[in-house]
Amino acid sequence: MNDITVFRQTWNLKALFLGHLFALAWFGFFVTETGFAFWRSIDQNLFFILNGTLSEDDGWTRFWAWANVRIMDLIPLIIMLVSLTFPGFGIKRDRLQQAIIGFILLLVLMFFVREGVANFTKAAELSGKSPTLLLEPAYRFSQIVPDIPAKDSATSTFPGDHATVVLTWAGFMMLNARSWLSLSALFLAVLFMLPRVVGGAHWASDNLVGGAFSAMITLSWAFCTPIMHIATSKVHKLLLPLIRLFAKIPLLNKLPILKP
After folding, report:
1. How many helices (H) and strands (E) are present in the chain, helices listed first?
2. Tens digits of residue pLDDT in 137-173
3. Rounded to whole angstroms, how far apart are CA atoms 219 and 199?
4. pTM
5. Cα-atom radius of gyration of the chain, to the nearest Å?
6. CA atoms within a 13 Å half-sphere pointing along the CA-CB vector of 90
7. Rounded to 10 degrees, what is the CA torsion of 89, 258, 169, 66?
8. Can you tell me whether residue 150 is helix, strand or coil?
9. By 3-state DSSP, what share of the chain in percent is helix, strand and coil, each rounded to 5?
């Protein structure tokens, strides 16, 4: 069996069970009446503290407004791609090809998990409007800085889509390379989640509960079963001729991910 892998090659039923148990306990508390009230209290306090700093058209408000423009979503995407293309974040060079292929496949798995969570919470009426549409006072970018096309509201917020992606990436990095460099991915994930919470397009629990739960379930199946390893190995083998072709192109062949 090929030793070059970014996922587990065998079943670990104990870890799979414990991963799901912790995730379900984390999410299960949220769906109880007491848990929902607890998280809503945290949500509202954080919203009023963070969103309350956006009351005027100044540099601070414009910074967060630009951070909530959709094109700015490319920044975390670029950072994630760089972390999977160069060995600087801790993934070994000989695993980079498997890492980027595996992570793309991991996002496919994550999408189905997230959609399942979203459908359940909608049916259970746990996913609703963003705080800017429900709470007062709420400072909206569309009213304070209307010249910036920033997202400041949503009609269905749980789970946080950005949070699910960046937390899945952070977990992927930490489980592949246990170092301070890979731990920085978790710090970056928190930073990437902040704009939507500050702007009021998401509750904090959308990210800390919904995003975290979706990421935990996804990562449990990726790192406690051989499913993702098998899928990644097959896709990698299928793409090898194309990878070797790119490796012959000048300049591109300097990239660590294309070196044999």
Report:
1. 12, 0
2. 999 999 999 999 999 999 999 999 999 999 999 999 9
3. 29
4. 0.93
5. 20
6. 17
7. 90
8. strand
9. 75, 0, 25
Tell me the two tokens of residue 135. 């709470």
From the list 212, 241, 243, the residue with the least C-alpha distance to 114 is 212
* Beta bridge partner(s), residue 150: 69
Between CA 203 and CA 217 the distance in angstroms is 21
Q: Which of 69-78, 87-96, 120-129, 248-257 has the highest mean pLDDT?
A: 69-78
For the chain, the residue count is: 260
Q: How far apart are CA 166 and CA 171, in angstroms?
A: 9
Q: Taking all residues of the chain, what is their mean pLDDT, rounded to a whole number?
A: 93
Phi-psi region of 251 (alpha: psi -120 to 50; beta: other; left: phi over 0): left
Please give the DSSP secondary-structure letter assigned to residue 130: -
Query: Measured between alpha carbons, how far is residue 84 from residues 4, 64, 155, 222 in Å?
Result: 15, 28, 34, 17
146 preceded by a cis bond (ω within 30 of 0): no
Residues 84 and 69 sit within 8 Å (Cβ to Cβ): no
- Rounded to 10 degrees, the C-alpha dihedral 128/131/133/139 comes to -160
Distance separating alpha carbons of residues 172 and 5, to the nearest angstrom? 13
CB-based contact 174:183 (threshold 8 Å): yes
The sign of the dihedral angle between the CA atoms of 87, 81, 156, 40 is positive
Residue 45 in tokens: 């306090």
